[in-house]
Structure formats: C-alpha cells, structure tokens
Amino acid sequence: MTDSLVAAIDQGTTSTRCLLFDRAGRMVSMAQTEHRQHYPRPGWVEHDAIEVWRNVQRVVPRALRQSGATPSQVAALGLANQRETTVVWDPRDGTPYARAITWQDTRTSALVAALRRGPHAETFRRVSGLSPAPYFAGPRVRWLLDNVPGLRDRAEEGNALFGTMDSWLVWNLTGGPDGGLHVTDVTNASRTMLMDLRTLTWAPELLATLDIPPAMLPEIRGNADLGTSCRTLLPGVEIGAVLGDQQAALFGQTCFDAGEAKCTYGTGAFLLMNVGQHVVDSAEGLLPTVAYQLPGEVATYAVEGSIAMAGSLVQWLRDSLQMIDSAPEIETLARSVPDNGGCYVVPAFSGLFAPRWRPDARGVIVGLTSYVDKGHVARAVLEATAWQTRDVVDAVNRGSGLGLRRLKVDGGMTSNYLLMQCLADVLDVPVERPMVTETVSLGAAYLAGLAVGFWADLQDLRKNWHLAARWEPEMSAARRAREQVEWGRAVERAYGWSPE
Ligand SMILES: Nc1ncnc2c1ncn2[C@@H]1O[C@H](COP(=O)(O)OP(=O)(O)O)[C@@H](O)[C@H]1O
Ligand SMILES: O=P(O)(O)OC[C@H](O)CO
Question: How many A from CA of 103 to the centre of ligand 2?
C-alpha cells in the first residue's frame, strides 16, 4: 500500500524521536535517541547541532525499519522542535560557528536586563508580544555576534545563517550546503523577540535594536507552507509541516477552538490555550504566541504559560539527592504520607518563568520541622508542579477572558496518577489524558498530513482523540484556598535570593 503513514520528527531538549502514524492517528513505531547536554559554565546549556542532525539521521531509518515501511509509504514528514534554541552556521559547509545555545541558557541575562531598563522594552512588547527575557532566541544571536570572533563580518557577507532547530534541520534535510532551504515557521519565529506578531514578518526596528544583520535570517513561512521535499534522508518525501513542539502538542491534542488548552509535562511544563484570531496582551505574565497557521488562512494564536522546571525537579531528587532510584518511584514515596506536612518546594533553580518572570528567584524548601520526612518532600516536589500550573491558569483566566473548563495533559509526568489527581484538585477543573500521549509528534504529523491531503480537515483529526484517563477535583474549597496562600508565601521566600 502506498502513502499509508505520516512521519514526525520531535527534536526535543533531551532527545530526538521519529514516530510513524497511521490514518487513525495511532502510533505505528517510534525510535528515540538522546544527545549530550553541555554545561560549560553555570547557567549555560548547549547542544551540539551536528550531533542533533546525526541523531535525526539515525532515528528516521530506525523508525521505518521497526514498522517495516518503506519511504514510499510515507505521505509526508512533519517536524516539531524545541523552541528558542539558537544555531548559527556557515552555509558553505554546514559548520556551526558555536554550539547551539539552548532555551534554558541564561547567558544573555545582562544583555536582557539592559534591554528591559532601556527605551526599547515597550517596543519589543508591543511588536513581538514579548517582554525581553533570556528565554528567547534574539538576544542569543546578538550574544554570538558579540562573542564569536569574526562572526559579525561573516554574517554581513551572508556567510552566517541563524536558525532555531527547525531551520537547521530543514536546511540539512533539503540539501545543506548543496542548496538547502533557509526557512523557519511562524510559531518558531514568534519566540525570537524579532518577529512582528501581527504581520508575521521580521520587525526591522527590533533587528536594529539588537543589531542583527537581516542577511542572517531565515524566511518565515506558514506551518504547512514549505512546499518542499527532503533531498536527504527521505528523498522525495514532502516536508508537510514545521512547528514548535509545544504548539505541535496543542495541535496534537486537537485544541482547535478558542478556550481549549493543554499542558505538556516533561522537563519543563508548557500550558497553551487557543485564543483564536487575536493576540492576548502579555500584561499577566503570559506569552502571546502563534499557535498555527494553516495554508491560505490567517494565524490562530495561543497564550502560553511556560514553567521552567517540572520533571527536571524529579530528576534532581533522583540524580542529585538520590532520594529515589527512578522518576516513577516518587509516587510511591509521596504516597507514604497523607499530605505535605507543611513543606513546600519552589523550584526556581534558574529563576521563575510564567507568570512571575523573576530571574532573581532561586530554589527554596520551606516549612521544615523535625516532623518532615522524605515522603513529605516528595509530595511537595509533585505539588510544586501542580501549584505552578495553578499560577499559570489563574493568569490565563484573567488575561484571555476565556475561563479554563478542563485541561488536556500529556508528557512523561502524566504517568504519575498522584500528581494528576493533585493537579485536578488545585486547578478545580477536570484533567484529561488522551490515548496517544506523544502529542508533539502527533501534532506535527497531523499538520503535515493535512498539507498533503492524508487527512481531510480538522474534524477528521478530532475523531482520532480518545480519552484514556480523567481526574476530577476532589479537594475541598477551603483546603485549596489555604494551600494556595501557603504556596504564595513560599514563592515569596524564593524572590531576590540571586543578586542578579
Ligand atoms: N512517574 C513519574 N513521576 C514524576 N515524574 C516523572 C515520571 N516519569 C517521568 N517523569 C519525569 O518526566 C520527564 C520526562 O518526560 P518527557 O515527556 O520524556 O520529557 P522531555 O520531552 O522534556 O524530555 C523527566 O523529567 C522525568 O523526571
Ligand atoms: O523539548 P521540550 O519538550 O523540553 O520543550 C522545550 C520548549 O519548546 C522550550 O520552549
């Protein structure tokens, strides 16, 4: 049978995956491999872009082999990627000028602090929708131009290309030095601090403020408007769609109507709510962002609350404190006690993201007494993810004018039933997990499949969403209110710990 599958690449923070899906949206096969995290200095987190591209070249054939499919059976390829991670490379031979600076890297803090104090902060917010923060890609480009010897000259000559991981991979998939396409999509571009969020074009005034040569920039395309095929790896297979991984998860969860929201719980946690065709103001500490743009249509927007630490706090408990041997063990430990014993953990290891945006905050554990044991700390670690989500949901409800009525969830942490119940309790809305939890890949596959007519329309995709588990709120309103106040007091203790 020809054209029976759609392939998706999920190039994430810790690993790269390739998944194949059939017409019912069922996962047919998956191959995954991790790449190395480089921490050359405190606050710096880098990836080797060559290693990432090599991993893509490994996982795609492995996923095909596992399924027994041939490339001719692949109707289209969708690509979803970790966002904001910044690569600058030489188009003459495909060599990166430096390791990729990842979204978790805080080296641009001083540059960003100066921008926030300066006269252009409001222009960034008004045009790109984003208040300057080290999270976004634009300041990283400037940092590279200032710190890699000779790079500015190379960039002005047209011999240095900037891209987030999507651009880097598409360029390699379409031939690399041999005519590779230098493009990005509207969702990834909306995380650079350089794009006008309404016109979906690069904003000359923002480029000028950061002194970034326009010759470095990829062309911005709609999510399913690349109109090109792979020349390497899957020769002839159309690259049907490209989009940021969290937007892909929103699409994979079929949140197509305004007010529908999902939260993905992996290393960090990312809650996105579809808000339709308007840009929500960032006043509540949320990020207005492009959700997706279908061919021939105007963009659909989302509002996002990004949480820097969720599953990574569980990893810290496992690897640094060695309180557990594996991530799932945290549930057993947390269930050994009935509550948190008055203990709260605020995981501000590199400051707090949405909705508070406090780079000066650092991690704290409060409420310690002789009564508190490992079980209470484990519970507080899980509750930290739930309460951080509550802070984001409160901001979303205030900022969007659309009340959250249920939350669709996915990601590695959703296998923790205690956490999922806790989430429903603190949010006071039902929490739902679908059968296919690889929603990033599914969303990329869906968009790619729509582009080539593998699926007919959004309604066709909705039919593929099946409920696997649902958690209803059980906590009393009085207890919820009391614990929310305590959480808020704990967060205040984290503020100002770092002199930054
Ligand atoms: N049962 C569990 N309870 C709590 N956390 C978990 C559990 N299983 C996995 N995790 C956490 O989930 C994260 C992995 O999820 P995943 O979606 O694969 O993340 P990513 O895509 O960001 O790499 C890890 O940080 C891990 O600590
Ligand atoms: O790769 P993930 O799943 O950790 O997601 C990273 C986000 O895209 C960062 O904004």
Answer: 8
